[in-house]
């Protein structure tokens, strides 16, 4: 929990004064960042929070001198670091500063390391870039760093290539590189966003403890208020290029002043699931012993590699019920979803939809029955054909089963009204809509065939938190109104708490826990479920009343 | 699509090379269309004394060839042949290439293996040698030249389209189309193919250029249609007298050069205008 700020003996490390960064002409606004001022002290973590496009990453890049000049350039203000204005420095001077006095870690650990270089050499390059040291001494330092960031067997790891490491381990290597020269300041740009929740908890712990032991100032950029609650000493909230609220973590989180902060915090799903009545509808879908194995053949003489993505999966969904399928990446939850809508063929087990043996349907018979189980996809940018008008995208399902064109188009317009976009949206192309709006279009498409079961595969994980809340409300509302059953696949336990009646926790292709959401959260049986729940960032933080009143998402 | 179309033209015309290419190409096309008006007489007719140098006699700015035929007329009618062969053979190649590439990329597995082995079979034979053999077997005529060029130029199209299909078929919007029950043909033609059009258009413009070069080379060797005056034929016929009469080979040579250059410039301009994401991608 934040708030235990070590404020004593603070000195200012970084001072940003009246910084404005101009965007090229024709961008959606004139300035990426407008007249922002804040300070970062030694030995504290400042969290910069905001939704996408708020200018938080741009601020970090300006400090590091990494703006894409000359298109995007600082036009006003000062960035004073250790007494010197960074904006007046030459590229060569900045280069000396980067790495040695300021370290940076990025969001994507999977692509940030050069796949052809051993871990040791990549970290070694940091030393080389800032003056030579003796090879044996360098190796000793690298091993110590690897041990410091909690990686096992540094003496083996130093000579391995990145592909052998998991995402979390790579992020640790990135942190080791950033800290190699003991910088006074660390800038972390969404460093845990791409990681699983249990890994995220470990990395947050690591950053916390390294910051404390090295008395660093850390500027931590995130969109996630759970992470803020976990790690921040102070918080700056950004909205469209301006800092709207700045203060100690405890104050911002528990007594937000600015309406935007209240709205953002109010949109964070409550961690505690409400008690819900047991669903009473008839059983719509019955999955029994579902199996799916991926086989990679590696040529004639190489042994096949088999990965069981789903083994012996059994659950049922009743009409009017939302079942959450929760797990980390690689747990097989998406595989199960894809088997249900028959994007994948199963390798065993039954999928019984009412009295239909859905898993064994083939060809035309399958095509005729697909309409009953529809899917909402994860990525609102990839799931709509960029070359088709929205009306056509929605109408394509009904038209594929022979509904006359005029009727299908009329239905598409109705559905656009239902999801809150207005019938006129039918005549526009997907790129004219924001992520949240596109996800509404995806929902309308899934509803066009009047399905009885909706499979939603991480439908909100690509969206900003305030938009996420709106889309979740829409899904819940539609489910109630049309009395649908829903399988909701997510990695986010907060989201699951909010929307699911019952949930199934998956790990390595198996369901390890299955029951009413309220029971699973309050009395988890399986150790893995306990680990997952314990890893949710900010689980001890209760969203304040004031945010909940103000924070009801706009219609 | 209106603003997108406008956007496309704005980006295309901002590129000076593409603009020049488009102008040259327009000139060649107009020349081909209005050939009978510019030079009403048959390009094969002998109209002046042979070996007339350029600009020596009014109305014969490009001179005459070894038999006294007007080179200017040859250039104009040659444009017809070059464009006709270039465009039609490209259409032939696109038809074969897009069909095979789409099937291989969409279905994958055994279909892909079979079709790609078939494609490689064509790719391993040198283009020009195969074209010569085909024209020789089919007897030289405009049709056989078109067929030959089409048959030797489709493999790269098939590879390109296959690659695009491979990456597009796993995209979520294609999966969504499967989930709502669209048939494979509906998905291939309605969902995937429209998204592969940009690279196909770019490639097609460059293929027209290659086809014109191939046609010229075939005609140069005397394998063109004996009844049509083409640029390649003119160069071939004039090569023995190149030291006495440079203009007979230089003018058709320049015509080929300009046309091919124009097509390449246009192709490059199309590429930049259709793929602005390559320059500024990311969200």
TrEMBL record, chain A:
One of its GO terms (molecular function) is ATP hydrolysis activity. Residues 14-265, 285-533 form the ABC transporter domain. InterPro entries: AAA+_ATPase, ABC_transp_ATP-bind, ABC_transporter-like_ATP-bd, ABC_transporter-like_CS, Oligopep_ABC_C, P-loop_NTPase. SUPFAM superfamilies: P-loop containing nucleoside triphosphate hydrolases. It comes from the Bacteria. One of its GO terms (cellular component) is plasma membrane. The lineage of its organism: Bacteria, Pseudomonadati, Pseudomonadota, Alphaproteobacteria, Rhodospirillales. Keywords: ATP-binding, Nucleotide-binding, Transport. One of its GO terms (biological process) is peptide transport. The keyword Nucleotide-binding applies. This is Peptide/nickel transport system ATP-binding protein. The keyword Nucleotide-binding applies. Its main location: membrane. It is found in: Cell inner membrane. Belongs to the ABC transporter superfamily. It is a peripheral membrane protein.
From TrEMBL, chain B:
It is found in: Cell membrane. This is Peptide/nickel transport system permease protein. Its main location: membrane. Pfam families: BPD_transp_1, OppC_N. Keywords: Cell membrane, Membrane, Peptide transport, Protein transport, Transmembrane, Transmembrane helix, Transport. CDD domains: TM_PBP2. One of its GO terms (cellular component) is plasma membrane. GO terms for biological process: peptide transport; protein transport; transmembrane transport. It is a multi-pass membrane protein.
């Amino acid at each position: 929990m934040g708030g235990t700020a070590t404020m004593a003996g603070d000195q200012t490390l970084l001072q940003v004064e009246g910084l404005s960064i101009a965007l090229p002409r024709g961008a959606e606004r004139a300035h990426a960042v407008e007249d922002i001022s804040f300070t970062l002290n030694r030995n504290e973590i400042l969290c910069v929070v905001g939704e996408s496009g708020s200018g938080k990453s741009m601020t970090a890049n300006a400090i590091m001198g990494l703006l894409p000049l000359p298109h995007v350039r600082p036009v006003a203000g000062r960035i004073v670091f250790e007494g010197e204005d960074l904006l007046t420095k030459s590229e060569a001077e900045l280069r000396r500063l980067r790495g040695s006095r300021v370290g940076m870690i990025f969001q994507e650990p999977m692509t940030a390391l050069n796949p052809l270089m051993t871990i040791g050499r990549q970290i070694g390059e940091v030393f080389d870039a800032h003056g030579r040291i003796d090879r044996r001494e360098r190796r000793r330092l690298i091993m110590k760093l690897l041990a410091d960031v909690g990686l096992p067997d540094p003496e083996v790891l130093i000579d391995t290539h990145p592909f052998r490491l998991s995402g979390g381990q790579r992020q640790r290597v990135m942190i080791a590189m950033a800290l190699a020269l003991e910088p006074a300041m660390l800038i972390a740009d969404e460093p845990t966003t791409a990681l699983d929740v249990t890994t995220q908890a470990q990395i947050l712990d690591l950053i916390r403890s390294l910051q404390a032991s090295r008395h660093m100032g850390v500027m931590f950029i995130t969109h996630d208020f759970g992470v803020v609650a976990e790690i921040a000493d102070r918080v700056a909230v950004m909205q469209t290029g301006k800092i709207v609220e700045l203060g100690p973590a405890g104050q911002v989180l528990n007594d937000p002043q600015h309406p935007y902060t209240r709205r953002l915090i109010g949109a964070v799903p409550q961690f505690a699931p409400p008690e819900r009545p047991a669903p009473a509808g008839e059983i719509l879908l019955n999955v029994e012993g579902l199996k799916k194995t991926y086989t990679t053949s590696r040529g004639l003489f190489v042994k096949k590699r088999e990965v069981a993505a789903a083994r012996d999966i059994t659950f049922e969904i009743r009409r009017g019920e939302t079942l959450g399928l929760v797990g980390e990446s690689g747990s097989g939850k998406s595989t199960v979803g894809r088997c249900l809508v028959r994007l994948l063929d199963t390798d065993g087990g039954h999928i019984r939809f009412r009295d239909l043996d859905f898993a064994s349907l083939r060809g035309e018979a399958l095509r005729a029955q697909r309409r009953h189980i529809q899917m909402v996809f994860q990525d609102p940018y990839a799931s709509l054909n960029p070359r088709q008008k929205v009306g056509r995208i929605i109408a394509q399902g009904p038209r594929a089963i022979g509904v006359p064109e005029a009727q299908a188009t009329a239905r598409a317009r109705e559905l656009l009204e239902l999801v809150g976009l207005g019938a006129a949206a039918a005549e526009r192309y997907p790129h004219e809509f924001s992520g949240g709006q596109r996800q509404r279009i995806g929902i309308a498409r899934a509803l066009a065939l009047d399905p009885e079961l909706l499979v939603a595969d991480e439908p909100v994980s690509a969206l900003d938190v305030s938009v996420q809340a709106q889309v979740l409300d829409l899904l819940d509302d539609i489910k109630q109104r049309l009395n649908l059953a829903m399988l909701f696949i997510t990695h986010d336990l907060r989201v699951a708490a909010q929307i699911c009646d019952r949930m199934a926790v998956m790990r390595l292709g198996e369901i390890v826990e299955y029951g009413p959401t309220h029971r699973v959260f309050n009395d988890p049986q399986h150790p893995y479920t306990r680990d997952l729940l314990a890893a949710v960032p900010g689980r001890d933080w209760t969203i304040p009343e004031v945010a909940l009143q103000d924070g009801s998402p706009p219609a | 699509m209106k603003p997108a179309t406008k956007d496309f033209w704005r980006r295309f015309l901002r590129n000076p090379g593409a603009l020049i290419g488009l102008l040259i190409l327009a000139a060649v096309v107009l020349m081909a269309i209005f050939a009978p008006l510019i030079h009403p007489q048959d390009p094969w007719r002998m109209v002046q004394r042979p070996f007339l140098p350029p600009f020596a006699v009014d109305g014969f700015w490009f001179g005459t060839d070894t038999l006294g035929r007007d080179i200017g007329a040859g250039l104009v009618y040659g444009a017809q042949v070059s464009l006709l062969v270039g465009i039609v053979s490209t259409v032939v190649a696109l038809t074969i290439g897009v069909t095979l590439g789409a099937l291989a990329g969409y279905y994958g597995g055994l279909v892909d293996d079979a079709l790609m082995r078939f494609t490689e079979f064509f790719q391993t034979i040198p283009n020009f040698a195969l074209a010569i053999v085909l024209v020789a077997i089919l007897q030289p005529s405009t049709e056989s030249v078109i067929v030959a060029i089409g048959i030797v130029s489709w493999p790269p199209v098939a590879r390109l389209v296959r690659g695009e299909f491979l990456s597009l078929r796993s995209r979520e919007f294609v999966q969504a189309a499967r989930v709502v029950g669209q048939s494979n043909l509906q998905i291939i033609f309605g969902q995937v193919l429209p998204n592969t059009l940009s690279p196909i258009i770019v490639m097609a413009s460059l293929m027209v250029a290659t086809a014109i070069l191939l046609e010229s080379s075939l005609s140069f060797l005397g394998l063109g249609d004996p009844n049509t005056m083409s640029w390649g034929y003119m160069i071939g016929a004039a090569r023995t007298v190149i030291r006495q009469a440079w203009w007979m080979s230089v003018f058709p040579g320049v015509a080929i050069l300009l046309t091919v250059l124009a097509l390449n410039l246009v192709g490059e301009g199309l590429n930049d205008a259709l793929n602005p994401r390559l320059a500024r991608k990311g969200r």
